[in-house]
Design brief:
By secondary structure, this protein is α+β, with helices and mostly antiparallel strands. It has helices at about 30-35, 55-65, 75-80, 125-130, 170-180, 190-195, 205-210, 230-240, 255-260, 275-290, 295-300, 330-340, 355-365, 370, 375-385, 440-455; strands at about 90-95, 105, 115, 120-125, 135-145, 145-150, 160, 310-315, 330, 390-395, 395-400, 405-410, 415-420, 425-430. It has a single domain (about 1-455), classed as DD-peptidase/beta-lactamase superfamily (Beta-lactamase, 3-Layer(aba) Sandwich), CATH 3.40.710.10. Strands 2-6-5-14-13-12-11-10 form an 8-stranded mixed β-sheet, with helices on both faces. It comes from Photobacterium alginatilyticum.
Length: about 450
């Protein structure tokens, strides 16, 4: 297939949900320009992605792939999300040689669980995941190592799909491993391991600040920063994702990292402020500590022990750096197998234990409730769960009082793990920002399912 030149991509990887505008967007609205592009709005059901798109459609998707177009959740998004490796160079992270087949113990009962949505009222889970308002493409839940619920309203089981920021949990897990092994000092400056950032605002940021998003830098992802073309976040993502032309001009992602400034009246460690830049720098820390490519570390420590069906596809910057911050793809079932590594039934999906009890304890005991309280992510949690978590840590957005953890991804991707209830769940979506779309309640259903199955044991 001929690869057409893609204009500079400003893809807001921020895990921002609940941002909705009126369907009739005024000309001065910050999204008006992007929504005017062909394919940026919804005319097709998500089920359209279960079949191949015709050549003219694909051509149009390539021609109009720019700025926020890939995350608008419109018709073109259905193509982008399941075909990312077609327009970005990609590392293939191999699974274990022997695939592990997941057992099914499908439960019709849990499909009747109800949650009150803001936009469509009370819905059973069966109705919610196929409802056209929510644009979910796939969902899988695993209890005690067996699939108890699955649906594919907008993709096929063998399709790969972008994880978006749900993938940050891999970087968090590897960081915990290296710290436990004494190969990484959590309280050391990030620039000890990434010397090219010495002399910048990153000098005061520790590795622990990176992994817990408490860097104290002016690079937080929120509804304002992701729409600011002159801000460091938009500039960073644009330079990091680049184009298919291989010959890029202008600043690099390294230039942008050097330009990040500290926040006034805030020190590192004081407040949780989510930023993909933290995760990307942490990826560089991991590479320099191990003297290995980030994707090779993932294969050795995680994916190569997983009985996945297919490789994990990690997409790359123009200079070939793995985009560990969000841009990787897999099948839904392989995503669910990864999630199950955090549960007692890890042996149903892997040939060797990856997430040990000590690693799980390290992850869940980190973070600060005071740093998290009242921040942007707390508001997001209330929208997704109708429940307030305690804190965030090791790249997980939310850690609850009962030890359950969740990580969100842009356009509606997510991973939820509840080790105490031996439960894991994942989902993929193509959720737009504009009304009548934008609401996501999948995580709220996950918590109810986990609680119900735990009570029935």
């Amino acid at each position: 297939m001929k690869k057409l030149a893609i204009k500079s991509l400003v893809l807001a990887i921020a895990s921002v949900s609940g941002f909705a505008a009126n369907a009739n967007v005024p000309a001065n609205h910050p999204l008006a320009e992007y929504l005017a592009a062909p394919g940026a709005t919804v005319t097709l059901p998500v089920s359209a992605a279960k079949k191949h798109f015709d050549l003219d459609f694909v051509q149009g998707a390539y021609d109009s792939f720019e700025s926020f177009h890939a995350q608008m959740g419109g018709d073109h998004t259905l193509y982008y999300l399941t075909n990312w490796s077609s327009f970005m160079r990609t590392d293939m992270v191999n699974p274990a040689t022997q695939q592990i087949e997941l057992e099914r113990n499908l439960s019709s009962e849990i499909g009747n669980i109800v949650v009150k949505t803001d936009s469509e009222g009370v819905l059973t889970m069966d109705d919610y995941f196929v409802h056209p308002t929510f644009r979910h493409q796939g969902v899988m839940m695993i209890h005690k190592g067996k699939v108890v619920y699955e649906a594919y309203p907008g993709m096929n089981p063998a399709d790969t799909h972008i994880w978006m920021s749900s993938s940050k949990t891999i970087t968090g897990l590897i960081t915990a491993m290296l710290a436990e092994e004494g190969k990484l000092e959590l309280n050391a400056s990030a620039t000890k391991y990434v010397p090219e950032l010495k002399g910048t605002a990153w000098d005061k940021v520790t590795v622990l600040d990176l992994v817990n998003h408490t860097a104290g830098l002016d690079h937080e992802e929120n509804n304002s920063s992701i729409l600011d073309p002159d801000g460091v976040f938009v500039r960073f993502v644009s330079s990091a994702l680049g184009t298919t032309e291989r010959c890029s001009e202008g600043e690099t992602w390294r230039d942008v990292l050097n330009d990040v400034q500290p926040l006034e009246n805030e020190e590192p460690g004081e407040r949780f402020r989510y930023s993909s830049l933290n995760t990307h720098v942490l990826g560089q820390v991991i590479q320099n500590v191990t003297n290995k490519r980030w994707t090779d570390v993932v294969e050795e420590r995680i994916w190569g022990k997983l009985g996945a069906r297919m490789p994990l596809m990690v997409h790359l910057t123009p200079d070939g750096t793995p985009l560990n911050l969000a841009i990787m793809s897999s099948t839904l079932e392989d995503f669910a197998k990864y999630a199950t590594l955090y549960t007692p039934s890890w042996d149903k999906v892997a040939h060797e234990q990856v997430v040990t009890p000590s690693l799980l304890k390290q992850i869940r005991s980190a973070g600060s409730a005071d740093a998290f309280d009242g921040g942007h992510k707390e508001t997001q949690a209330l929208g997704l769960f109708k429940e307030k978590p305690v804190k965030a840590a090791y790249q997980f957005d939310f850690i609850f009082e009962d030890g359950a953890m969740y990580k969100h991804g842009n356009t509606g991707q997510g991973i939820y793990v509840d080790p105490e209830r031996d439960f894991a769940a994942v989902y993929f979506s193509a959720t737009p920002y504009v009304a009548p779309y934008g609401e996501i309640k999948a995580p709220a259903y996950f918590r109810k399912v986990a609680e119900l199955l735990d009570q029935a044991k």
